[in-house]
Structure formats: structure tokens, C-alpha cells
Amino acid sequence: MFNYSTLVVGYGSSLRRDDVLGLKISSMVASWNLIGVKVLRVHQLTFELAYELSLVEKVILIDAASNLDSQVKLEQILASDTQELFTHGCSPSGLIAISQWLYGKAPEVWLLQINAEDFSLGRGISPKAKQGITAGLKILYSFLTGVLCTR
Fold first, then answer.
1. Which of 9, 57, 98, 138 is exposed most, by the fewest CB atoms within 10 A?
2. The three-state (H, E, C) secondary structure of the chain, written as one string
3. CATH code at 84?
4. Cβ-proximal residues to 89 (8 Å cutoff; 6+ apart), any chain
5. What residue numbers bound the domain in which 106 lies?
6. Would residue 44 count as lying in a domain?
């Protein structure tokens, strides 16, 4: 059927400086060519991604975030209340609920947030975001391969 059990989804805007982090990091993960891992790069989370979620056991979403207490934050996300399903946007927890509702299956979902500070229009990322990329890639590599990165 499918030759992957883990889905990595990086999302954000390439037009808003640090918001590109999810896209940039997911591209780096794709270059690792890990067996069993599929990587998607999207502008935002949409309801259509629920089908992709229904095909895998584990999902890692990657996004830029402001005002984190550390460079990166990795947390498991649970399905939301079904009332959120019919709002304008699609949150990570809403996406899980949609996958469960439509396809009867929801994977284990994790959100990796990278600390960022500049979401203005333009290209280039802030020094804070650059540090977060390095830390985020170490966490992702450990998470996806089971190999602990100590450097």
C-alpha cells in the first residue's frame, strides 16, 4: 500500500520572514531521505490534510511561533472538540479530529514549534530563528531515527 508510516508537515509563509521556518526545516528533513518518512510542505493546515493523516501512524507538524520559553517546543497534540471543525481555519487539533471523523483513524500527532520573532513581509530570517533551526533539526533527527543527538 504505502511505504511510509510517519508524515512530516512543515507549514508557513515564504513571504513573511521567520514564518518560513516550517517550510525550510521540512525541506532539510526531506533531504535526509529517511525510510518510512514522507515530507509535505504547505502554506497552511487545511482540511484536505486529514486524508494524509489517516494513512500514517505518526505525524510531526513544524511551525514558527513567537514568545516561546525556549528555542524549540515539541508537544503532543490531541483532537479538539468537534465544534472547532467547522470554523474558518484548521488547527492541528482540529485536523486530528477531522481525520478521526472522516476516516475513522487519527495518528499520534506532534507539533514542533520553532521560536521566531520577525513575521514582517520580506525574506531572510532572524538570528533567533536561525538558532531554532539547528535545535529543531536535532530534535527531529532524534525523533525520526531514535538516535540521540548530543551536539
1. 57
2. CCCEEEEEEEECCCCEHHHHHHHHHHHHHHHCCCCEEEEEEECCCCCCHHHHHHCCCEEEEEEEEECCCCCEEEEEECCCCHHHHHCCCCCHHHHHHHHHHHHCCCCEEEEEEEEECCCCCECCCCHHHHHHHHHHHHHHHHHHHCCCCCC
3. 3.40.50.1450
4. 44, 45
5. 4-145
6. yes
pLDDT at 140: 95
Q: What is the pLDDT of residues 72-102, one digit of tens each?
A: 999 999 887 654 555 555 889 989 999 999 9
At 6, list the grid cell.
510517519
Is 150 contained in some domain?
no
